Each structure stands twice: as C-alpha cells, then as structure tokens.
Amino acid sequence: IDADDGFGSVPYDKGALFLRNLEHRLGRERFDALVKGWFDANAFQSRVTDDFLAHLDGFMTAEEKAKVTPAFLAAWLEGEGIPDDAVFVQSDALAKVDALRAAWQQGGELAPLEAAAKGWSVPEWTRFLDGLPRDLAAERMAALDAAFKLTASTNAEVKHAWLKLAIAARYAPADAALEQYLSTIGRRKLIVPLYRELAKT
Asked: pTM, whole model, 2 decimals?
C-alpha cells in the first residue's frame, strides 16, 4: 500500500551491520573481492538471499568458512534483533556536533559553531539540525540562516533537514524555498516528511 513500507531498520541498519561484520571477518581486501564478484556475476538481474549465500559459500576458503559459520549467518539472516557480535563503527564526530549544538542552544556564541561547521559532512549537518528544538525562536533561526545560508543550501539532505525545522518553527523566510523544493524534488524520503510537518500546522 505504501512504497515506504519496504524500507526500514532491517534492510538498512541490520543489513549494513551484517555486511560490516562480514567485512570484519573476511578482511577488507577479501570482502571487496566478494562484493565485486557478486556484482560482476549478477548485474541487472533480480537475486534473493539464497543466491547470495550460494555465492558466498563458493567464494570463501575453508579458513574463512570457520569464521563465517552457518550459526553466524542464521543469527543475522533469520534471527530477530541485532546479534551480540555486531561490529559498530566508532566515531566521536557526532558527539562533537551534539556538544556544539548544546552549547549554542544554551546561549553560547555562534563563532565556535561557524568554525567547526566549515568542515562538516552532510550527516553532521543533518545531526545538528535534527537535534534542534522544533520551536526554535525566529531570531535563532535567522542567526543560523545568516551564518550558514541554510535556506539557500544546494544539498538536498541538508535543505530537507532545515526545511523540516523551518516548518515546525514557522520560519517564514524559508517559505519560498520550501515551495520550490517541494515542486522540484521527487524523492519520497525527502518530501513526505515535509508534507507531514506541513499537515501539523
């Protein structure tokens, strides 16, 4: 009924963690060879999990099969939740974003934020914006917009996060950009949340 129902935490989050764990067990060089071989053999074709498992089994050495056991595969592909052996990527980048956001929200100066944000990636920007209170005062919104030109951002993900916040905070200077964004972006994940925010107002 809803195309977005096919997406979620299992194929994206658990799937990503499964592949990360597989890479950890095989090593980066062997994992890259596995993935390249899979795509070379299956490009432009529909495949299912059993096809991948057969490819993996034919690819692995006996030593690798001792690390990627049937029990490991069953836990990841058939079990519920995230298995205990999940390998998580560790980074303090988002914690630094959270600290800067908190300091600014508590009345701190914009200068430290401006200095740090010059090197921010898209995930850092979306983390910052998504963590701001939805009722951010107009003058705080204007200060962010003036410093970072968020209403004029050319990055669809950053602009999405900004416009979501602008709708909730009723930041009128972003209205024209919102209308333009909604009439030119076609990706559901970027526009449906904006319409949902609009429906609340």
From this structure: 0.73
